[in-house]
Amino acid sequence: VAPTTPVCEVPSSAMTGTVVRMSCKETEGSPPSEYQWYKNGVPLLEKTGTGSAREANITYTMNKKSGTLLFDTVTKNDTGEYFCEASNGIGLSQKCSVKRMQV
Predict the structure, then answer these.
(1) Would residue 23 count as lying in a domain?
(2) Which one of 6, 13, 34, 84 counts the least CB within 10 Å of its CB?
């Protein structure tokens, strides 16, 4: 079964240095969907064990299975427009509406 449009929870504002948890979920997809978060239209990278200069700047943890995006300590750099995409390889992937977070 193709995924339905996921429900995204993105706070509209956050204080610098706080923990922010965003969530993304859809329930129709079978097999269960994987979730990809985007910031300003750019797909966010999963943090992996290998370190490159770019990945060293990653301040979040993205879980593709649960759809959560967790920032340990948000900074002004994390301000932006976020959305998430659900896909399970069947039918078209589905995106939620873009939501802006201001830090």
Answers:
(1) yes
(2) 13
For residue 57, pLDDT beyond 80:
no
Nearest residue to 82 via CA among 66, 64, 102: 102
Residue ranges making up the domain that contains 11: 7-101
Considering its fold, how many domains does the chain have in total? 1
Looking at residue 8, what DSSP letter applies?
E
- Pair of tokens at residue 72: 């340990």
pTM: 0.89
Q: Can you give the CATH number for the domain in which 36 is found?
A: 2.60.40.10
> For the chain, give me the number of helices (H) and strands (E)?
1, 9
Q: Reduce the DSSP state of residue 97 to 3 states and report it.
A: coil
Nearest residue to 86 via CA among 5, 9, 1, 22: 5
Residues 6+ apart with CB under 8 A from 42: none
Q: Would residue 19 count as lying in a domain?
A: yes
Spatial distance between the Cα atoms of 92 and 75, rounded to a whole number of angstroms: 34
